[in-house]
Amino acid sequence: MSKYKQQFDDQKLYEISAEKQNNKKTQENRLLKDRFLEAVVKGELGRVENSGTVVTLKEFKEHFSDIKTDYINSFLPAATLQPGQSSASHTRYLFRVRKGAYLVHPDVLLAYQK
């Protein structure tokens, strides 16, 4: 292999490595809400029941294991609609169906898919 070919290959590997690191940083910098809804829409998170898509806190923590702060424990409860409310907002789009289980508001999933 020529010296120039080796330098070219080394530069290409460096660029690929840098691109992977940037993609990882971009993924980490995205809002957790967007990452969460994307995972639900893709079927990577939650399970479809008669009432819609239900995500458990345990599944959520496993899927987003890259989050090391206590935010992981408060994200789902913080996005829960108050009892008696049925309209989703940009910050509240989950229904608590039982301890540790949350139903994703169907309107939010429809809007996110568009």
Quaternary status: single chain
- Kindly report how far apart the N and C termini lie: 50 Å
**Helix count?**
5
- Form type: globular
Uncertain runs are none
Radius of gyration: 20 Å
Order of helices and strands: HHEEHHEEH
List the domain count as a whole number.
2
**Integer average pLDDT:** 81
Largest sheet: 4 strands, antiparallel
Kindly describe this structure.
The chain has five helices and four strands, in the order ααββααββα. With 114 residues, the chain is an alpha+beta fold. It has two domains: 1-30; 32-113. The chain has a four-stranded antiparallel β-sheet with strand order 1-2-4-3. A hairpin with a 2-residue loop joins strand 3 (94-98) and strand 4. Helix 2 crosses helix 5 (106-113). The protein is globular and about 30 Å long. It starts with a helix and ends with a helix.
Task: Sum this structure up briefly.
The protein is of the alpha+beta class.
Q: Descriptors for this entry?
A:
2 domains; 54% helix; alpha+beta; 4-stranded antiparallel beta sheet; single chain; 114 residues
Topology, element by element:
Layout: H1 3-29, H2 32-42, E1 47-49, E2 52-56, H3 57-63, H4 71-78, E3 94-98, E4 101-104, H5 106-113
Helix pairs in contact: 2-5
